[in-house]
Amino acid sequence: MPQPVVPFAQRRRIVLMLGAASALAGVPPLLLSSAAQAASPSPLERLGALLNLVARDTFAGVAAFAVPGNDLYSLAQGVSTLQPGAVAAKSDAFLVFMFDNFLALPGAGELATALGAPFRGIKVPQSDGKLADLGALVTEFVAAADSLPLGFLVALLLNALALVVQPASAVGLFLTPFPRLSWKHKARVFELLELPGSDAIRMVAERLKEPLTQTLVGYVQLVATGVLAFAGSAAYHEWYALDATTRRLKLRPVGWTLSKYQPYGPVEGWDEFRGYYQGRRSANDA
Description:
Layout: H1 11-23, H2 28-31, H3 34-38, H4 43-66, H5 72-77, H6 91-102, E1 105-106, H7 109-116, E2 123-125, E3 131-133, H8 134-144, E4 147-148, H9 150-165, H10 183-194, H11 199-205, H12 212-234, E5 242-243, E6 248-249, H13 254-258
Antiparallel strand pairs: 1-4, 2-3, 5-6
Helix pairs in contact: 1-9, 4-6, 4-8, 4-9, 4-12, 6-12, 7-8, 9-10
């Protein structure tokens, strides 16, 4: 089967695709329920929750690609199994937490302006029914925050490439374009992300000045090589099943099922000792 044609030379189209990826944040039925907005006291906190949902939906698509299971994200990509996979293991939440807390990108005015530019003109509904410019909100959020939620930046890059590889992913079952791709198209997205000198990365970097350019490119390169490994390993973690207070498991971890681990708890060993070689009792008479 031939590879999908990716017209990276058409820079204007990439800009439009990046803007389209931003537009996914303006889907009120899926993102902005009245209850969720009422629970957030400030516009910045509401926007932060919105960006988190976008990132988690995207990373659920990544998780299904890394370790397919019997979930909807795996079924949609055309590669699934009869067992639970990385999505059931909450790999999407793990990736968002990891990126946002351990790979935080320091906030800066130039960076906020560059990242907010593609969102200009896109309107999102507020809890009072009024519309607000998402670009202005993103710029305000990034400028006011101590650090940029890197998970959302990674999600934005993945979705921009998803729209270039498969423009039809702009609409569909899920919240964001990347989870709507087939398994093969997802592989193509990661291939493009890993290519040295990718136009997609260069286009974002051109909006910045040194040293932010090298900082951004360095983070993207790290993401390109690590996001799949992180998503796959998260499927075998016990972190989401562990009660932090009691330090006991609340449920059986998905990884135990995938690895055929002992059904009723951790392995403590088996009573199978049969003695030493040739009946020896110590090392002195060897």
